[in-house]
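Course assignment 3, question 2. Fill in each field.
Student: A.L.
Task: Predict the tertiary structure for the chain below.
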Amino acid sequence: MKLTLYQIDAFTSSLFKGNPAAVIPLEKWLNDNLMQQIAMENNLSETVFFVPTDSPDADYQIRWFTPNLEINLCGHASLASAYVLFGILNFDRPELRFSSKSGILRITQKNGLFTMDFPSWKPERYTQYGDELAEILGTPDIVGVYRHRDLLVELPNEQAVRNCKPDFTLMKKYYDKMIITAPGTSYRSDIPSEHSDFVSRFFAPGAGIDEDPVTGSSHSQLIPFWSEKLGKMTMYALQLSKRGGEVWCEQLNDERVTMSGRCVYYMKGEISLLDN
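Answer field:
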């Protein structure tokens, strides 16, 4: 059996930035264990698989795997999948619909910018933490702690987010996934006279990823959090990983958000599976 693999850098306009995803189109689902083994072999934060569906509500089913486990939502690999479908596999409808473990995900494109309609996960204030959190992050300057799927920690400023050096061994002992965030001060790439609205970093040692370069699913929490805090429906965000990435955000309503980004094609390869 031979499978085609595309590697796409998502949430960026520049090669070697953003978040790389391995995208593998399928005609039918492989064995779950085999998909997990492929993701482990690829050793990227996400390997995404999709198959066509006859459902009237969706065009494809989609699933996402880290090197360690399957997760319920991934933004950058969904963005990369849309890039492959629209730009390489000639998907010709105005809206691409994925059926996923987090419901129906809709993606459109305009002038190279892909916009994803995702669930809004407003985090609520979280008090069930102790001194370990400051020890994990190496700073006592924590403004607030919140949670939905992941722990969200607000820090005082962008510099604190940039300079944070987490203890991942200790983090894994207490938390699978963690977002750190603060108001933005770096300037926008699209409007150089204006600064970003917020910045973030995302850690997932429990999923085998110490730091994810750019994370769509974390913005399902970040967008409603900052929309309420800033009193804004549309925002521009930067994820401050080593590779870095940018996300155009909108709070549509209490249930849905959109996040938009660009992608860059890196490579196409072939996986050869013998006797699988």
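Instructor remarks: The chain has two domains: 2-118+261-272, 124-251. The longest strand covers residues 263-272.
Grade: pending
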